[in-house]
Amino acid sequence: MIIGVVGKPSSGKSTFFNAATMLDVPMAAYPFTTIEANKGVGFVRVECVDKEFNVQCNPRTGFCRDHVRYVPVELVDVAGLVPGAHEGKGMGNQFLSDLSRADVLIHVIDASGSTNEKGESVAAGSYDPANDVRFLEEEIDLWFYGIIEKNWPKFGKVPFESKAKLVSAMAQNLSGIGAREDQIDSTLLEMNLTDKKPSLWSEQEKHAFAKSFREKSKPVIIAANKADMPNARQNIEKLKGQFPGKVIIPCSGISELTLKRAAKDGAIDYVQGAKDFKVEKELSDKQNQGIEYIRKMVLEKFGTTGVQEVLESAVFDLLGYIAIFPGGTKGLADSKGNVIPDCFLMPPKSTALDFAYRLHTDFGDKFIKAINVKTRQLIGKEHELSHRDVVEIVHGN
Fold it and tell me: Coiled-coil stretches, from where to where (predicted)?
């Protein structure tokens, strides 16, 4: 799974990315601070299963605190997007290429309305952030349409014998944008294009297909950044009214980054996603003023900085992923003595066989059976797993 962090220049996108990953990528209020895609690792929280077995886990990756597992996810921060990106304007071609493998997009917007469509500073509240929500998705939809149109001769005029062959051909030719057969299949069904030959599709149908397919293959969550600034709260409420079908989460990337850095220095006790923090050592007046501002204007008003909620909503709500723990009925430790060392994020409707392949190709190829470690019941290879299942895979040699 790859999470793409997108947005226009100077929206606070790189600050959000740094806050989520604790990487020091360049941050500045001018266009194209991010010239090449930055990659990093963030974490999503899962209630750990260790307490159900009265043990303490030892994660191989990520960490566990108070029986809350922090599972790593990959993030990509790409160059700021400007209108006309699908035509190659700005860093458009590179931007869209960087996003081709992303499974979900976090669109960071300046909720305060203090940057215009080009990422230039303007008076706070003078720009409508709803414009950013519309233009980014329009740009990506047009990019999708352009790729579909470019590949149209490869499948648009070929007389396929069945829908399955059409879906397979489309997935193969659109693999550059991460197309999956199930997404194409469901889009054709939704658009009532299942039984219509591609050669007979109208331009309107092509555009509609591109938009619907993009919504399935690259869903977007809105990170309403700079939520503590003047006008932001009113703008966020307006956005929720204008885009009722979208997930819009208030956040402050700079607040999360500040708290994490203070925690790293030992100044405060804070863990990502927490509702508050505890001061651990004496701070200067300026430092104390800064973190107390965050406590009052961000944590008390919004509950958290919002960064963690954005990540988790992207993974668990938009993508519907589930967390699965490998384990055994005879023990929960690996050969090195690490207890419940792994936690895997799996797509929705993943089966026991899917999980076996995720662990190792040989486990899938030589699959015999699986066991639900919590209930000690046998499960078949087609059994759909549930969030926080602990599964043992039994395979041949």
Answer: none
pTM equals: 0.89
For the stretch 252-266, pLDDT in tens is 999 999 999 999 999
For the chain, helix, strand, coil in percent to 5 are 40, 20, 40
Higher pLDDT, 169 or 354: 354
Buried b (16+ CB within 10 A) or exposed e, 224-249: bbbbbbebbbebbeebeeeeeeebbb
Nearest-angstrom CA–CA distance, 370 and 377: 9
3-state secondary structure of 18: helix
CATH superfamily of 322-395: Beta-grasp domain (3.10.20.30)
Decide if 124 contacts 228 (C-beta within 8 A).
no
Among residues 143, 132, 310, which one has the least CA distance to residue 217? 143
Give the per-residue pLDDT at 307: 97
| Cα four-point dihedral sign 61, 64, 67, 71 | negative
Indicate the domain borders of the chain: 253-304, 322-395
Gap between the Cα atoms of 5 and 323, Å rounded: 22
Name the residue among 38, 47, 8 with its Cα closest to residue 20.
38
| DSSP character string of 87-112 | GT-TTHHHHHHHHTT-SEEEEEEETT
Model confidence at 381: pLDDT above 90: yes
Determine contact, residues 305/298, Cβ cutoff 8 Å: yes
> Contact at 8 Å (CB) between 319 and 347?
yes
Average pLDDT, the chain: 88
- Among 277, 371, 364, which Cα is nearest to 332's? 371
